[in-house]
């Protein structure tokens, strides 16, 4: 009996040992999986942080550049607020990966000083003062420093996504780049996720048909128009697109503020408004192919198409081409005043001149009969409102859209700074204050604004 009991105890003990090993094994696998998952998430968060930092610093750079051309407290206040937000975001990001290194303090210091100085400039203008040459030189110095920071962050971001460096190496890489290429103290990377950090992305002038103030308003142009039938819309869609009517398939109607009939054929979508029968948009997945025509020819093709679609009195403003497709901005013009809210974008294939896409959302939502009071500010007074460090190259009157959904009649001054950079300055015809400042960015693809 004793031998049997001893044998049973040995079997039971062995079972416990095996069970314990199994439990430990499962626990170990679970912890390994959790650790791997945590590592992946950490890597994603860090990559997102680097990208966001680059966006924040780009915004800081743009605000500081515009600040060099400010001449009124209204514009200074707006830029001060924007820079304050970007600086705060960048600081928040820097704190996410702080390791106690002293380099981090210097970046915090720069962001704080830039924000403080811009706010002091704002207060100076509010109190009735003006910017001295020393003020503008200080802002320029801050701007040049921000350019180096922004370029370095963007370069590190490229290296990370190209897989050329691991995140752990970014700090040393930033340090090396900043010391060798820009003479700056090295800094860290990161930033929290927010849409605000991407608000400064370069676009065609006053581009943005899907902004909130467009999609939330009612179209005065369409409001009093009569409704057309689906069959009438189909005929118009065929005429606009050049596709045989019998080959167009009706899709679900567009139910946005611009209600439209939608038709489709072989990768091309055409939308015609329910009221008035206006061409709303064309979208095509057509591949552009080899470039055979010039941007000037593409702009002419776009203008011809606008006339065909019933949109007259449209003036070309700026264009940009990418991947064999040239996108041209047109704005409504009347009595030598250009109305930027009434925007239409036409994209043309540089291969054969065909229309690849068309978007009249901004025009359809904004176009209406407008009445503006006679300019209270003379052209000479408006010229005096432009900063002294800008050379005026040309001027015209323009109606521009504001962030709150309203519009302003302005004098648009095309200017250049001492380094040859082109700047658009808009002076309100009622108040004589700066209504907006845009930076013109030129490339082989065309002109964009910031």
Structure described in brief:
It contains 11 helices and 13 strands. The chain is an alpha+beta fold. A hairpin with a 5-residue loop joins β11 and β12.
Please provide a written account of the structure.
The protein is α+β, with helices and mostly antiparallel strands and 450 residues long. It contains eleven helices and 13 strands. The protein has helices spanning 2-67, 73-96, 103-126, 133-161, 170-182, 212-215, 220-223, 230-241, 295-308, 361-366, 379-385, and strands at 249-250, 260-265, 268-273, 279-284, 314-322, 325-334, 337-349, 355-359, 391-401, 407-416, 422-428, 434-443, 446-449. Strands 1, 2, 3, 4, 5, 6, 7, 8, 9, 10, 11, 12 and 13 form a 13-stranded mixed sheet that branches. α2 packs antiparallel against α3 and α4 crosses α5. It is globular.
Topology:
Blueprint: H1 2-67, H2 73-96, H3 103-126, H4 133-161, H5 170-182, H6 212-215, H7 220-223, H8 230-241, E1 249-250, E2 260-265, E3 268-273, E4 279-284, H9 295-308, E5 314-322, E6 325-334, E7 337-349, E8 355-359, H10 361-366, H11 379-385, E9 391-401, E10 407-416, E11 422-428, E12 434-443, E13 446-449
Parallel strand pairs: 7-9
Antiparallel strand pairs: 1-2, 2-3, 3-4, 4-8, 5-6, 6-7, 7-8, 9-10, 10-11, 11-12, 12-13
